[in-house]
């Protein structure tokens, strides 16, 4: 269905940014498209395999599947899965291969699990050594995806992944096989538990020593209580928004709860769509062609409009590069200037993603953005039409048949979700900062306006544990800018610094002006404390953040978009960068295996990836 309210042209700024991305990327994008066109001309790979190769590929299949693969007439659908039953978000995927196989057979083909990719949980590793592998796991997932598809026996693929680094890694890997159609299949968020705001209060009380570990564990268990994605709007749920608004999900599929009849019906329908898009039929839709400059601009617009995860200032850049497209933080910043904030979902508000979905969800958001000319409607999607076809939501009829109905035209709860005309703020939730400390990003959507500018003396730390020790010792008093450095990708893999937020939140609640400046990450922990993150160049690369000393006055200005240090220029020029022994972060918990990654990784503003972006 096509909404008549969708304008035929996009907002001037959207068009301008898209055009400059096209111009900037022309050579790389052309080479990428030529490469996938050559791969597509070769036809389905398995039909050219030797007999022994093919026999290996279907040896374990049942008789009917084996007969189909021997004949070679139907499509073979590869399943790349991030299933494990330790991650609540991925546990529901255990049942998906059987659903997908049944749907593939009904469509006259076969589905096989092509391979698995690792899926770590940042919630389990936060504050622990394993978090230093988290960002690098994205590129490992991309590599594992390429290995899974390297058998060249598939005509299309479906990708089962949800959480933080997993979806971006799957996208990068899928784009390396850009001639294959691809559908991403979500599993949905867990049902609502303890409200996120209540959980945050318990965390702060624990940081102050006012409640014990038993109370903290009980609160966390009531919040994270069952199968499905964590319900706050961090990277995992931002991934789901992004896959839908970029056309890789079925319409309205992102936030349907796991293990429900509607969820199962959507999974089967996604497999059917993948089967229908192969080069064997008349509706060939390779992912490398679908994900063009317009699709990535739509993803950035969705990020701003929903107040999504700061991690995507890394991930979208890395994903685009895999498609031969060069995105920059300046593109993010210029788009943020014209995209309004339509959502208040924790940590930007009190609601969770189930409330967001019930209030109108993705169908409402896409309708509003299309109506304002803030999205490219004329993109390819896995559903078959343009993005205007995503202004609908899935439903089950009484007989169990899957269908779609028009998405809500009005928000069901304006405390959670609003239209463009009544937006929570006129500009997006992310801001680019630049100055004599380098470049950084800040998530402003959850920060009170009176805290958008912080000027205070620096306290320098080289780990989040150092800051916590200083807090517990009562050393952090008065206004301060906490500078936590040597946390970038070259230093230690750029971990998320979740443990910083409770003590800094306590200091802010005591009436102090508080901010954080770091070359590490925060993501879903980005909340009410102003935080300039992803500072680049990083300290381990000789960046200016390595020159800061205790007592230097640092100014973070999220209004003007600046990050500066108020030190005499002569004094600043005479300083040598700090050096620390990083060896303890390079050994143990598998970190010794990632030395090559730390040596090869690029800068935060180019996606912090080990893959070439030039």
From TrEMBL:
<keyword id="KW-0479">Metal-binding</keyword>
<dbReference type="InterPro" id="IPR056740">
    <property type="entry name" value="ILV_EDD_C"/>
</dbReference>
<dbReference type="InterPro" id="IPR000581">
    <property type="entry name" value="ILV_EDD_N"/>
</dbReference>
<dbReference type="Pfam" id="PF24877">
    <property type="entry name" value="ILV_EDD_C"/>
</dbReference>
<keyword id="KW-0004">4Fe-4S</keyword>
<dbReference type="Pfam" id="PF00920">
    <property type="entry name" value="ILVD_EDD_N"/>
</dbReference>
<dbReference type="InterPro" id="IPR004786">
    <property type="entry name" value="6-phosphgluc_deHydtase"/>
</dbReference>
<dbReference type="GO" id="GO:0004456">
    <property type="term" value="F:phosphogluconate dehydratase activity"/>
</dbReference>
<comment type="function">
    <text>Catalyzes the dehydration of 6-phospho-D-gluconate to 2-dehydro-3-deoxy-6-phospho-D-gluconate.</text>
</comment>
<keyword id="KW-0311">Gluconate utilization</keyword>
<dbReference type="InterPro" id="IPR042096">
    <property type="entry name" value="Dihydro-acid_dehy_C"/>
</dbReference>
<feature type="domain" description="Dihydroxy-acid/6-phosphogluconate dehydratase N-terminal">
    <location>
        <begin position="76"/>
        <end position="389"/>
    </location>
</feature>
<keyword id="KW-0408">Iron</keyword>
<dbReference type="InterPro" id="IPR020558">
    <property type="entry name" value="DiOHA_6PGluconate_deHydtase_CS"/>
</dbReference>
<feature type="domain" description="Dihydroxy-acid/6-phosphogluconate dehydratase C-terminal">
    <location>
        <begin position="416"/>
        <end position="608"/>
    </location>
</feature>
<feature type="binding site">
    <location>
        <position position="230"/>
    </location>
    <ligand>
        <name>[4Fe-4S] cluster</name>
    </ligand>
</feature>
<keyword id="KW-0119">Carbohydrate metabolism</keyword>
<protein>
    <recommendedName>
        <fullName>Phosphogluconate dehydratase</fullName>
        <ecNumber>4.2.1.12</ecNumber>
    </recommendedName>
</protein>
<dbReference type="InterPro" id="IPR037237">
    <property type="entry name" value="IlvD/EDD_N"/>
</dbReference>
<comment type="pathway">
    <text>Carbohydrate metabolism; Entner-Doudoroff pathway.</text>
</comment>
<keyword id="KW-0411">Iron-sulfur</keyword>
<comment type="similarity">
    <text>Belongs to the IlvD/Edd family.</text>
</comment>
<feature type="binding site">
    <location>
        <position position="163"/>
    </location>
    <ligand>
        <name>[4Fe-4S] cluster</name>
    </ligand>
</feature>
<keyword id="KW-0456">Lyase</keyword>
